[in-house]
Design goal:
By secondary structure, this protein is mostly helical. The protein has helices spanning 7-34, 39-42, 56-65, 86-116, 127-146, 154-162, 165-173, 178-191, 196-214.
Length: 215
């Protein structure tokens, strides 16, 4: 959606750092808390204060590349007493994060759509337009990346919540190796000509961006 780098893109990424990432992590915690888990509250994560959710390296990565992460929210599926199956609770909590980024992108797209339809005057020259597009792009990127079905990403926990037992068991057995798996997917496999992330995220991003601007 965007090429190059500018002050407007930088400001759009700042918007994601102070809204997109905190809301993503808070959403995980809020849903877990609704389902009965007391862990997020005990760890001070039921807040929208950005500094409770930001990871230093992940924040710098967003500023520099538009791709990054927040401080992982710890939840306890066995504390989610309002659902019968802990995997279901974990899946709902996991889904809340990416969905929050999609909802934020939808909200940020509203003024652009109103301008495109002629219902609002074109304002701010191109500056506000570019800031919003940058924030939308990063939010959609965060959502689609986190929906990939690899540990420790949210998509893995969502899949474990709806998949048959053997598949869910297999996914959960990979959790201790999640860091190595993510490293291989992001850095090692692309060097071997196998870009799983790019090939899976690209179509999802294109679909979501088209959906935002076609309604």
């Amino acid at each position: 959606m965007l090429s190059g780098f500018s002050l407007d893109i930088f400001l759009g990424r700042l918007l994601v750092i102070f809204l997109g990432i905190p809301i993503h992590e808070w959403a995980h915690c809020w849903v877990a808390s609704l389902l009965g888990d007391e862990t997020p509250g005990m760890e001070g994560r039921l807040t929208l204060n950005p500094f409770a959710h930001l990871d230093l390296m992940g924040t710098l990565m967003i500023l520099m590349t538009g791709f990054g992460w927040g401080k992982a929210a710890r939840v306890n599926p066995y504390g989610m007493r309002r659902v019968r199956n802990p995997r279901t609770g974990m899946a709902l909590s996991a889904l809340a994060g990416p969905m929050s980024n999609i909802i934020q992108a939808m909200i940020l797209a509203i003024p652009i759509r109103l301008i495109m339809k002629g219902w609002l005057p074109f304002w701010g020259e191109m500056r506000m337009w570019e800031i919003l597009l940058a924030a939308i792009s990063v939010n959609i990127g965060l959502a689609t990346f986190n929906l990939l079905p690899f540990p420790p990403l949210d998509g893995s926990r969502i899949l474990a919540g709806i998949a048959p037992g053997p598949i869910a068991n297999f996914l959960e057995s990979l959790e201790p190796y999640a860091g190595m798996i993510l490293m291989a997917i992001l850095f090692i496999l692309p060097q071997m000509g196998l870009d799983l992330v790019g090939s899976m995220i690209g179509p999802m991003q294109e679909f979501l961006v088209d959906a935002l601007f076609l309604w």
